[in-house]
Write a structure and sequence with these properties.
The complex is a heterodimer of chains A (about 625) and B (about 200). With about 625 residues, chain A is an alpha+beta fold. Chain A has 14 helices and 27 strands. Chain A is globular, with a radius of gyration of 27 Å. The longest helix of chain B has about 30 residues. Classes of the chains: A alpha+beta (about 625), B mainly alpha (about 200).
């Protein structure tokens, strides 16, 4: 039925009249979405020209230059595994040593020479890009989609992040937004966004838990909704736990079987194919009891095996179990028990898994709510927040009050951490700490800011080192420096220092432990402006080419499969349209390719209808009228 | 400090017209517009916090001048710190007492007998945990919870005296109870840590 995938190009292109142009973006591990509030009331997700709402978070860097994002990039993943980056979010804001320690089944060519940031070697090894730049490519496509649909430049965006993202991961996300040319109004925590979408839609009041299991991250948030105020009481999570891990668990079994029962190294393309097959099988098992895994091999017959739900659940149960203690701690931090809750909300594609639903129901003692599409709910909530912040109609009755997910502190003598801001404190929040010199003639301090719950620096995450200079010269204890922490509404920390006796702002040199410096981001921004137009043209051309290749293959396959359904007139019209398209693909005009695809679509219409009718007949054959009424 | 616009009352936001007031050092009771009293009506407290948040939160100043945005962030940080401290009964008691009578750190004498007793209880707990005797750990935690609750009861009575008569003598007594509560709290944290480790 491949021909039926040919959509109606231009169908959703009509520009809707719109007042405010603020949008919400869910920058997800597996896929990303953009949504807006168009009529001042209800948020809706903006699809692409083909009506697709979900943009796979996959970016392909072509060897000869050019970048592809989304479905078109995903199609090239198995063929060009190292040039095609999926799940970049798992590496955003991470340092090389952290990635080295945790790189399980990542089919990429990683450059780990810079301790502060990981780079992917892409475009046939000719380019090196950071996860921030990969994320920016995704954001840029969503920006263009939104601008096209809304008819003009955007006024601002709200980008969602996992609630448990630390400071470095948040900074990196904000930098990605900047690189994509977006004005980031706010970073919004994903579970809070989901609660906003539910709360406004259902007019809910009371205490809620949001259980958010996405492709690569897990969050749980406990919120209280009272009179329009969405107050987060506690949050917890794991930024390296998600549906991807389910796929990895399946893939590990498959790869071992492929290697004849032993652990072996596999080439990146093979790993990609196995991961994709694992995901397809897992998604099928949401509704089916058995799924088939099929992997083409370079030599010999394809590998085929079945996976049933019992086996899947045995594989993923340990992963799901890891969320239990996090949920318990969040409830305890909120000063509640499961019985105090008025509802549990499910967010994230991985919560479609029946085992996850059963687990949540058992853990919280009630059946969870999932009546808003768990793939879309975060983007919808982000759109609501964007509208509240920048939209045409201000709503003063709604406010989000969020918290800082992880404690912030300073390194003290002996590697002990002194916490200045405790986890689950409402944001914005601040703290002050005074330091005095401990040696005569001392003119500066070295400060080390860390994030985490443990008491020793070694077990926390390093955020930045500050060097404070310019203290007045004198005996020990004379100079006093006051260090001020301020966490803004995005959950990002800002540190300032002031020498108390003289009142001068001491000079602070910031050395972030992870991520890019402001100068590096600035340089990338300048580069991207310089190439913005040619990059966009190259991407449009590549996108149309890949689409066209797919459609040609699908049409040829259908023609070979059902020659009986082809009359001579349709066949020659199809051949003509295919030949015309083949010529256009070689050209540089993306519009010409698009028009040729549309022409092929029109030529294929009678054939596609016949194929559809035939499969309808097949579906209905041998069924009673009552059965059919149930189905239709 | 009076409001520039309507010369209304003090706090972070004017109670008369709701305008954000200039930044300055204020105590946490004043930040929430509360008198320096221990007794707090929980529902009223939450309502006050929400109303002030609606006026001061940076989300209300997204399109404002950078200086106003910075002030909103600072004012909300002050509000949130006050909320966090005063919402919790023990933290509120300790804050009130230190605000009126000075810090407890280093200048509050602790009876040697009390320290000795806590030290022994702590050793017993550590031994039970080391031996994997979960029942014993739980029982010790339970006993300490009872003791802590009794201490809280005493503290409440002392602070009720303060609330009624603003008698500084009531606060002097409360200082002793607060120090004891610190030891109880740390002990209970250790219990919770062991229990979590076991689970």
């Amino acid at each position: 039925m491949s021909l039926m995938q040919i959509g109606e190009p231009g169908e959703s292109r009509a520009k809707e009249a719109c007042a405010g142009r603020a949008v919400g973006i869910d920058l997800g591990t597996t896929h990303s979405l953009v949504a807006t509030v168009e009529d001042g009331v209800r948020p809706l997700v903006l699809g692409d020209a083909r009506g697709r709402a979900l943009l796979p978070s996959v970016v392909h860097y072509r060897a000869g230059g050019g970048v592809l994002v989304g479905d078109e990039a995903r199609r090239l993943a198995a063929e060009f595994p190292t040039d095609t980056i999926a799940s970049a979010k798992r590496l955003v804001g991470r340092g090389s040593d952290e990635v080295r320690a945790a790189s399980t089944l990542m089919p990429y060519d990683l450059d780990l020479t810079d301790s502060k940031v990981v780079r992917f070697r892409v475009a046939g090894g000719t380019r090196r890009v950071t996860p921030i730049e990969v994320s920016a490519e995704i954001l840029r496509v969503l920006r263009e989609r939104a601008e096209e649909r809304l008819g003009g430049p955007l006024d601002g965006v709200v980008i969602t992040v996992p609630a448990y993202f630390d400071d470095a991961q948040r900074q990196a996300t904000r930098d990605a937004g900047r690189l994509a040319g977006l004005e980031v109004l706010r970073l919004l925590n994903e579970p809070t966004a989901a609660a906003l979408a539910y709360g406004l839609d259902k007019g809910a009041q009371g205490k809620f838990a949001v259980y958010d299991l996405g492709g690569g991250t897990f969050d749980v948030s406990i919120l209280e909704l009272t009179g329009g105020v969405f107050q987060v009481r506690a949050t917890g999570g794991d930024t390296a736990l998600g549906g991807d891990d389910f796929d990895r668990a399946i893939a590990e079994v498959v790869l071992r079987e492929l290697a004849g029962g032993v652990d072996a190294t596999h080439d990146a393309g093979q790993v990609r194919r196995v991961l994709d097959a694992a995901r397809t099988a897992r998604e099928a098992l949401t509704s089916d009891d058995v799924a088939e895994l099929r992997i083409e091999r370079t030599e010999g017959a394809p590998y085929v095996r079945t996976l049933d739900r019992t086996e899947l659940e045995a594989l993923i149960r340990p992963i799901v179990e890891r969320t239990r203690s996090t949920c318990r701690r969040a409830l305890a931090d909120a000063g509640m028990t499961a019985r105090d809750l008025d509802g549990v909300i499910l967010v994230g594609g991985a919560t479609r898994t029946p085992l996850v639903r059963a687990f949540v129901a058992e853990l919280f003692g009630r059946s969870p709510l999932a009546d808003i599409d768990p793939d879309q709910v975060v983007a919808l909530g982000a759109a609501v927040q964007a509208d509240l912040l920048a939209g045409s109609r201000r709503r003063d009755d709604v406010l989000l009050l969020d918290v800082v997910p992880l404690s912030l502190g300073l390194e003290m003598m002996g590697g002990v951490v002194e916490k200045l801001i405790h986890r689950n404190s409402g944001v914005p929040c601040g703290a002050e700490q005074e330091f005095t010199t401990y040696a005569d003639q001392q003119t500066g301090f070295d400060l080390h800011v860390v994030q985490g719950e443990r008491d020793t620096v070694a077990n926390c995450r390093s955020l930045a080192r500050f060097v404070l200079r310019g203290l007045p010269v004198g005996p020990a204890g004379m100079a006093k420096a006051k260090i001020t922490f301020l966490v803004d509404a995005d959950g990002i920390l800002c540190v300032t220092a002031r020498e108390e006796t003289t009142g001068i702002e001491a000079a602070i040199e910031v050395k972030p432990s992870y991520g890019l410096t402001d100068d590096e981001v600035e340089q990338m921004l300048i580069d991207s402006y310089a190439h913005a137009e040619e990059d966009k043209a190259a991407r449009l051309l590549l996108t149309e080419r890949v689409e066209a290749d797919g459609i040609i293959a699908a049409t040829r396959a259908a023609m070979a499969q059902d020659p009986a359904l082809l009359d001579d007139a349709t066949r020659s019209a199809l051949e003509l349209a295919l030949a015309a398209l083949a010529v256009r693909i070689g050209g540089l005009d993306h519009r010409a390719i698009h028009e040729a695809v549309e022409a092929l679509d029109r030529a294929a219409q009678p054939f596609a209808e016949r194929r559809m009718n035939r499969s309808m007949d097949a579906a209905m054959a041998g069924r009673s009228i009552t059965e059919l009424e149930e189905i239709l | 400090m009076a409001c520039e616009q309507c010369s209304g009352a003090t706090g972070l936001a004017c109670e008369g017209c709701g305008a954000m007031l200039p930044a300055r050092a204020i105590d946490r009771f004043a930040a929430l517009g509360l008198p320096r009293r221990f007794a707090v009506d929980a529902a009223e407290f939450e309502t006050k916090f929400r109303e002030l948040s609606k006026r001061l939160h940076p989300d209300r100043f997204v399109r404002a001048a950078p200086a106003d945005r910075a002030r909103a962030a600072q004012a909300t940080a002050t509000l949130n710190e006050a909320y966090r401290t005063l919402r919790d009964e023990s933290a509120r008691a300790e804050y009130l007492v230190t605000l009126e009578t000075g810090s407890l750190d280093g200048n509050q004498p602790v009876a040697a007998a009390f320290l000795h007793e806590i030290l022994e209880l702590r050793e017993e707990l550590d031994e039970a945990a080391a031996a994997g005797d979960h029942a014993r750990v739980a029982a010790l935690g339970q006993a300490m919870t009872v003791r802590r609750d009794a201490s809280l009861g005493v503290l409440r009575a002392q602070l009720a005296v303060w609330d009624g008569a603003s008698d500084p003598a009531a606060l002097a007594e409360a200082r002793g109870e607060l120090v004891a509560l610190r030891y109880y709290r740390r002990y209970l944290e250790a219990c919770a840590g062991y229990e979590e480790g076991a689970a």
